[in-house]
Amino acid sequence: MGAPVDCVHSPSSPKIDQTITQRLFPLPTREANLTRPNPWAKLVGDCIGRPLAKSAIEGRPPGEMYAHQRYDEFLPTVYSQTVQAGARPNSGVRDGMQMHRYAVGEFGPGGLYHNTAGAPGFDGTTAGVKIQLHPKMPVQQPNSVWTFDGTLPPKLLMARVGEPILFRHYNGLPIDVSANNGFGLHLVTTHEHNGHNPAESDGYTAAYFYPGQFYDYRWPMQLAGYDSINIAATDPRAGYPDGNGGVHKVRGDWRETMSTHWFHDHTIDFTAQNVYKGNAAMMNYYSAVDRGREGFQCNYENPNNANLCLPSGTGLDWGNRDYDMNLLIADKAWDAKGQLYFNIFNTDGFLGDQMTVNWSWKPYVDVRARRYRLRLLNGSVSRYFKIAVVTEKGDRVPFHMIANDGNIMEHAVAFPNSASQDLPTQAIAERYDIIIDFSRYAPGTKIYFVNLLEHRDGAGPKDEVSLKDVLSGKYKGDPAVGKFLEFRVQPYSGKDLSMNPADYVEGKKKMIPRPEIPQAEIAKARRRTFEFGRSSGTDEEPWTIKTDGGKGFSTDEHRVSAAPEVGAVEVWR
Ligand SMILES: [Cu+2]
Questions:
Q1: What is the DSSP letter of 544?
Q2: So what's the ipTM on this one?
Q3: How far apart are CA 416 and CA 373, in angstroms?
Q4: How do residues 86-110 score in pLDDT, each as one tens digit?
Q5: Residue 192 C-alpha to ligand 1 middle, in angstroms?
Q6: What is the pLDDT of residues 443-492, one digit of tens each?
Q7: What is the Å distance from ligand 1's center to 385 Cα?
Q8: Nearest to 170 by CA among 93, 85, 83
Q9: What is the whole-number distance in angstroms between the Cα of residue 452 and the centre of ligand 1?
Q10: Which residue in 205, 265, 341, 523 has a CA-CA distance of 20 to 30 Å to 191?
Q11: Cα 247 to middle of ligand 1, angstroms
Q12: Domains of the chain by start residue, with CATH
């Protein structure tokens, strides 16, 4: 990665784009690559006023300890690379990397999503998209927002279950630690949240790397049960779409197939501010079960078919996103000049007073009058949500939840229901996948997401406000309570070939059956309890964990509190 011109900026746009588009070089290695220097080493030395004794091109900790486990067995066959960098206009460098290439379905000419910014000049390209929370708000300065590539729209990594990925993450942040507009640390360690990943590629909090370096994360993408279940890889439900109408079968338990993930910075003590500043992206896992292609060998036609045919599209063999939308929902705040703001001294948890979706302030999006899958991520750092889906009149819109936290459920759950009018409380990092059928509504109808959960501070949510009081304007408390996303229903002339979630509710078909654990196995399982708290209930005492009623310990990476054996069954509380 080419060096920046000074200590307070990321590299130039052409240099970042070159790093993103170049063939993977140097090739990845099992142990951290220490054979080449950090190409920024000289400049870093100049900036900090002393030459660096050593600094390697890869920032992964050296040696066997951080070598990729079972590397030859899970050798990456695909890769993705990005540069964490300060805000800059998008050059359209990833246009050609989109699977739809702005040519297929709703992303093609005439489709709802062919234009990327809702303004002239953005047909089939993201070139020119600036880092703005709203078209009428100021452009964010390079050191206010640090995103993947340094650009918007936010990035989505599309991956396949069973296909190991190499994710090369470059740190292109400013060398000067104070060049951050008041918050965010220029270190990166990337955690793929909920991923079934080995420790060296899991974004360990202290395994951060420095400006100029990269870190090779190798995510095996394997199904749990790889070593014990379906080891001959004969089960057609365990696998990934091969791009040609088939399934490449893999080992493991198909019931462990995951779907909606995200990854984010995990630097010790700085995770919240770095995530808030832009180090957070969603990641969709595609599989035999969740192929991202509707109307193709659907489970609703034949129970032997694995493909659930969740709302997606038909133009590609897998990974259609015409009717499958990722929504990164997060509260933000900005200063008097409109620049992103964060108070690092608020250690109870910083709250933004404004709601954003995919980095846009209270946006709208056009949708067809048909079923959509919406993947909601709470990408806030301290704010919980309680989301209602309503019409302009304030009537609740029926929908189904089909997955949470990356797990497709056994049965779809209809909302509103007798226990809950709205989505359950959604905590930080949680994901809910829901299906809304917009065909119930005439073109021109507007549908809203409304946040009902009030916060007074970042230590936890307070009360749920009544929908009536929110919509009438009677409630005047937390400004992040209220409508924050608008769907505008557009006519649909195609045929909706997605599954009807009402056919998969309890008592009907199953999406992914839950494993049945025999009572005898539970009875003889080893039990452990863990109690989290402040040891003496005051702010002066550290957070501790008591294991099996023992002494409360604070963190120590050298202490082993539980060492379950492979194959053993344990119940943890
Ligand atoms: Cu996480």
A1: E
A2: 0.94
A3: 17
A4: 999 999 999 999 999 999 999 999 9
A5: 7
A6: 999 999 999 999 999 999 999 999 999 999 999 999 999 999 999 999 99
A7: 17
A8: 83
A9: 24
A10: 341
A11: 30
A12: 1-89+130-288 (2.60.40.420), 324-504 (2.60.40.420), 520-572 (no CATH)
